[in-house]
Every structure is written in structure tokens, then in C-alpha cells.
Amino acid sequence: MAIKPPRWYFSLRSPYSWLAFRDLTERYPDVADAIEWRPYWEPDEVSNRMLAEEGVQLPYVPMSKEKHFYILQDVKRLSTERGLTVAWPIDKDPNWAVSHLGYLVAQDEGRGRDYIGAVSKARWEHGHDIADRKVIAGVAEELGLDPDRVANAVDDEKLRARGLDILREMERDGVFGVPFFIHRRDKFWGIDRLPAFVETVRAARAVGATTSTTRTEGTES
């Protein structure tokens, strides 16, 4: 069985993913380039029904009022530490597939990481509703992408099928929250676990580089 590459699951709706994205790309760019990026979102009614028919149940639990209040405090604290100001958006029955399937279009065009940064900024720094197709179209236009295709990705059957594959893989990986980092058998949940994940990825890469060098020297001799 092939070993899965190190990877992280992010969500455009999560303030912790927003902060982890910034930490990963700004503090650990070598690791950001060496791992797989996978979106995580709560499926809409259509995808949820299709998954249920397959017996796939995602481990999503609605947030309590107490946890919500804690997150407000915690994210403000973490944002301040990073010199950021968070603008809390107001979500009214959001469809998270709109922004996350739009990511797949941006990814195909080689702009996936730029899309994450732009959508996260729109949501967490400007308080925009990223389930609004007009907002996503604006982000796409800013990035030089086809705004109609990105904003309406949720209506594309092929993209929805790819999204379902990602959600199935997420369930198999045992992902229950974000940011979620996986390296071989090790799993790391939460932004405070990012440094530990980085260490394991870097250590494995160092061992791999040493092994490769040793094999090359042995061949030359």
C-alpha cells in the first residue's frame, strides 16, 4: 500500500484555518510547498443526501453557544498576537460548497493558494459572506479567474463529484475539525499543533534526503 503524503485539511469558514494558513505560508513555506492541501466543509443538502445513501457520515457536531463565545475570545487573542484584526462575518444559512468547490477551479488554474488567501481575507478581515456567489465572483475576478465558473462551481456536476471524493477521503482520514494535519500515522488537530506537524515533516524529508545521498554515493563507488 502506498504511503499517503503529508497533508492538511483547511476550511474557508474557520478562523483557525485562516490563522493556520498564514502561519504555514509565512513561517513554514518549505512545508507548505511539500504537503497536500485539502479543503474541508460541511456538505450542502444535495451532497449530504448522496453521502448518506453511501452510508458515509461525517463527524460534524453543531457548535454550542459556550464554544462560540470561547472562539470569539480565542481568535481575537490569536489574531492580536499576529498583528491582525478580525472582522466577524454574519452567516445566514450559508452553503459552504459555493466557496470550497470554487477552490477546486482555482486549484486547477494553479491559483489555489492565492484563492484561499483572498477568500480568507474577504471573510475574516472584511467580514464578507463567502457563501454569496457575488463575493466569490469578485475574488475570482481579482485573481484573473473566470468569475462565472468559480462562483457557480457548485452547479458543475463534475466538480461536485470531485468534492464528494474529497469528503469521502476526509471521512476515511478521521478528520473531525480544522485545521487538521496528517503525517503517516500521526494526526495533529488545531493551530497549536502546527509546529509539531512541521517538525515531523521536516524530519522525514531530512531522512529521505540522507538516504538518497547515501544511495547515490554507493552507486558511484
Structural write-up:
The chain is an alpha+beta fold. It has one domain (7-220): Glutaredoxin, CATH 3.40.30. The chain has helices at 15-27, 29-34, 45-53, 65-81, 97-108, 112-124, 133-142, 147-151, 157-173, 194-220, and strands spanning 7-10, 36-39, 180-183, 186-189. It has a 4-stranded mixed sheet with strand order 2-1-3-4, with helices on both faces. Helix 1 packs across helix 6 (112-124) and helix 5 (97-108) crosses helix 9 (157-173). The radius of gyration is 19 Å and the shape is globular.
Describe this protein with a few key phrases.
221 residues; alpha+beta; Glutaredoxin; 4-stranded mixed beta sheet; 10 helices; 58% helix
- Tell me, briefly, the overall form: globular
CATH class category label: Alpha Beta
Q: Secondary-structure element order, as H and E?
A: EHHEHHHHHHHEEH
* Number of β-strand runs: 4
Distance between the termini: 32 Å
> CATH H-level name... which superfamily?
Glutaredoxin
CATH topology: Glutaredoxin
Number of domains: 1
As a percent range, the share of helical residues equals 55-70%
Provide a count of the helices. Answer: 10
What's the quaternary structure here?
single chain
- Name the strands of the widest sheet in spatial order: 2-1-3-4
Summarize it.
It catalyses: 2-hydroxychromene-2-carboxylate = (3E)-4-(2-hydroxyphenyl)-2-oxobut-3-enoate. This protein is of the alpha+beta class and 221 residues long.
